[in-house]
Amino acid sequence: MNQVIKGQLILLTIKRMGINGEGIGFYKRQTIFVNGALPGEIVEVEIKEVNPNYAVGVVTKFKKKSPYRTNPRCGHFEQCQCSDLQHLAYDQQLGQKQQLLLESLERYVDSPIEKTLVLPIIKANKEWQTRTYLNLPTRHDGEKVVVGMYERGSNRLVYIDNCYMYHPFLQEKLQEVLDYLTKTNISVYNPRYNQGSLRNIILRICPRTKESMLIAVLFEKDPYLIKVLKKLSNITSINYVINEDEKSQTIDYKKIVHLTGKKYIDVIENKIKYKILPSSFYFPNVEETNNYLLKLINNGYIAKNDNVVSIYSSLGTHELLLKPYVKEIVGFEEEPFLVENTIINIQNENIKFLSGNIVENLYEISKTMNIDCLIITPPRSGIDSKLLNAIKTLKIKKIIYISQNPSTFAKNISHLQRQYQVKFIQPIDSHPQTIKFSIVAGLKIK
Questions:
Q1: Which residues, in sequence order, are bridge partners of residue 280?
Q2: Burial class (CB in 10 A: 0-12, 13-18, 19+), 353
Q3: Measured distance CA(401)–CA(382) in Å, rounded
Q4: Over the stretch 232-263, which tens digit does the pLDDT of each residue have?
Q5: How many folded domains does the chain comprise?
Q6: Are 16 and 60 in the same domain?
Q7: Which residue range is the domain that position 50 belongs to?
Q8: Which of 78, 144, 174, 232 is deepest in the core (most CB within 10 A)?
Q9: What's the CATH number where 338 sits?
Q10: Are residues 103 and 159 in the same domain?
Q11: Beta strands per DSSP E along 232-350
Q12: Which CATH number covers residue 200?
């Protein structure tokens, strides 16, 4: 039986932080999630949603604030979903992420892992203006074309004119595009009436090369808008894609149409240049993780004579970084078009990429290669049971597991522990001001 009801006011002490950055407290043994509340705070909460196992509330009054609470830079912080932790001092953000990892390991790993194996989190090189990619819905506010983010828990769009998370060059290019589209009187999508053309603006930039890529998401094919986009200057690559499903923001990257400019942009990370196509799946926060992989090379965990297989290789950023330091490296992706994106960056004989069923490819490559090291960067859902069983069957000597989800990471580690010994777990703050972070773990067969 539920202990609280919708609309009820309760006094709550926030005990810890949840995986989405929300505060968690307990009222008569019922779990209460409170967005924006920090551990240690005492708050008056109004219950907004009641479920069988938990309830959701909002802060109506602070009785005691955390000494680590800070004033968010962004005036839209309480409304938009861009960053979860702007209201928390940065050193405490690091501490909360470390704690989330430790709690996940304690909750999901059957055989306890020594805490000394979980290394202190590596802080980000920059705390602000790190993002080089955006995907934002568009509207017309009556005077100009604008972009925004959806308010937490609603379909209401909060217009954004400046975001402290965006790199200045990304902000600059976004404003140029918006100003140009306003002057040309284009048709902008209105979801209330399900009419108009321009739905979203997707922008990607590289600060080092000063190149930029635009993907305009259209609700319907609009010859005038396409003509306008073709004349847009100072954007390296201009493309569009049509999404006619008014209920979905997901686009089919295989259907992107190149309009003008280069078909790709050049991006430099860790002194390596990559060609990124509109359909490329690229992690813009990869540099800090790559720096740690270089450290593993320097301390001998990845050896010069190693044959390496990398699963979910995406654009091939890890593989291209490692190729000078290993004997051979093979990357796997399920989708053929993702492998096509990666192949354009290959200029070396000791590296190749394969598409298709991951498990089948792993068994097949093991027939001709003695796999010394497996690098796996799974989706947030983690490694599925078939792949976990294949890894154990093949008895691969070393594993480097790269994750951005502490829960699925811990569950997978628990499974692998039956055959592998954890050598280290390194959290990395790849997403400052948010609850997200990366984890790099090393395992060796027992």
A1: none
A2: buried
A3: 10
A4: 999 999 999 999 998 898 999 889 999 999 99
A5: 3
A6: yes
A7: 9-64
A8: 174
A9: 3.40.50.150
A10: no
A11: 237-242, 257-261, 265-269, 272-276, 307-311, 328-333
A12: 2.40.50.1070
Nearest-10 Cα torsion for 114, 120, 124, 125: -130
Same domain, 165 and 232: yes
Q: Is the dihedral of CA 72, 73, 79, 84 positive or negative?
A: negative
pLDDT digits (tens, 9 = 90+) for 112-131: 999 899 999 999 999 999 99
Distance of CA 288 to the CA centre of its chain: 14
pLDDT tens figures, 272-286: 888 999 988 776 677
277 part of a folded domain: no
Identify the CA nearest to 323 among candidates 299, 361, 353: 353
117 and 140 together in one domain = no
How do strand 307-311 and strand 328-333 relate by DSSP bridges? parallel
The alpha carbon of 49 is separated from its chain's Cα centroid by a whole number of angstroms, namely 28
The 10s digit of each residue's pLDDT in 168-189 is 999 999 999 999 999 999 999 9
Closest-CA residue to 244 (of 228, 221, 272, 227): 221
For the CA atoms of 319, 320, 326, 327, what is the dihedral angle to 10 degrees? 90
Query: Mean pLDDT of all residues in the chain?
Result: 93
Residue 194's identity, in one-letter code, is N
342 or 92, which is more confident: 92
The pTM assigned to this predicted structure is: 0.94
Same domain, 183 and 306: no
Q: Is the pLDDT of residue 338 over 80?
A: no
